[in-house]
Amino acid sequence: MKRTLTNILVTGGAGFIGANFIHFLFNKTDFQGRIINLDALTYAGNLESLKDIDLKFGINTLGKTKAKYIFEYADITDKDAVNRIFKEYSIDTVVHFAAESHVDRSILGPEAFIKTNIIGTFNLLETARNFWKTSDSSIRQDVLFHHVSTDEVYGSLGETGYFEETTPYDPRSPYSSSKASSDHLVCSYSHTYELPITLSNCSNNYGPFQFPEKLIPLMILNILGGKPLPIYGDGKNVRDWLYVEDHNNAVWTIMNKGKIGEKYNIGGENEWQNIKLLEKLIDFVAKEINKDSAEIKKTIKWVQDRPGHDRRYAINCNKLKNELGWSQKYTFEEGLLATVKWYLSNPNWVANVQSGEYANWIKNNYENR
Ligand code: NAD
Ligand code: DAU
Fold first, then answer.
1. What would be the CATH architecture of the domain defined by 7-206+243-269+314-329+356-367?
2. DSSP H stretches of helix in 72-201
3. Ligand nearest to the backbone CA of 183
4. Is the CB of 94 under 6 A from ligand 1?
5. Sequence ranges of the domains in the chain
């Protein structure tokens, strides 16, 4: 059955990948529908990342009935709020990015991960199941719940091999366990209730609007600030890096053409040891700011390893390539250069997310209303 894809609920749209997804849909596809961005604006969510979209497609410019972009300040664990939003905007599609996403934070305080990633996903699924029920109690089949997940659910690889869609789950951090749990819930709603779902498991993303706690933006900003560059353990852990627009292009491809009830791996086919990646990144930044890269490399600091640090992630994304015709558009060099340039040209965005000033702005504009 043809998918409607008209009133799309994007959860976590103010975060790194979600904000890039909204830009991608409006700027790089022929999407004609409406996006409702539901976000709780945690430390990782930033509406500044969507200022241009709001100006062009938002309520203040087009009015509430014609707006193509609407922001809803809400928590996915809040049943009443999620229910109201489904009804108010006649949601026919969900693309679920909202999550607590940082492994180190999950080690320090797992509770928020359980609440948002497991209970929040459950709440969205229940709301969708009830809202999309027809008069004969079956579920509409022109709707879609796309769940955005991670390759970390598969565990850790040795020096060889790849994660396939059929690789058994073996999550090892509170973060990856909570994502694995949400994946299982999503699949169970497909099997048990015939909720039309698709699911994607992606490797490490990088690009604009990423909160500077993750490796690449943290290192760029530490280089610019002359701070030490902390490398965990022996620096030989391997990640498979993908430019965020390529991830979002894959998500949109799956939402349009993916088989209902199926999961797809998304990857960069671009494996790097952390230390090698850092050396490359230093060369790129040094060139942009006319500094001596050898001097910057002296600021690399070997620090204690992350507890339970997964050794290697590597994705086999042949299913997505062969069945749906997706492929990566950006080389690592192109993506890395675009990312470095973005952080260099957006000091205000960086200052706001780092200073906590943005948190005050949320309090004044949303929480005290
Ligand atoms: P992020 O941390 O940058 O953004 C998360 C967003 O979710 C923020 O805007 C935050 O405010 C919002 N949020 C958090 N808790 C919420 C709640 N309870 N209710 C409503 N909104 C809430 O994350 P990201 O890196 O953009 O990741 C997005 C999704 O992609 C996550 O599901 C993550 O697991 C997955 N993923 C990320 C990567 C990566 O490399 N970053 C790779 C593969 C998959
Ligand atoms: O694989 C997909 C996952 O990638 C996503 O599901 C997660 O949401 C996302 O955060 C990311 O997880 P990682 O733990 O791989 O990303 P992070 O940027 O935190 O770390 C990348 C690697 O760099 C990892 O091996 C740890 C290491 N590292 C990280 C930081 C922040 C360091 O050596 N030093 C650092 O300061």
1. 3-Layer(aba) Sandwich (3.40)
2. 79-88, 103-108, 111-113, 121-131, 174-193
3. 1
4. no
5. 7-206+243-269+314-329+356-367
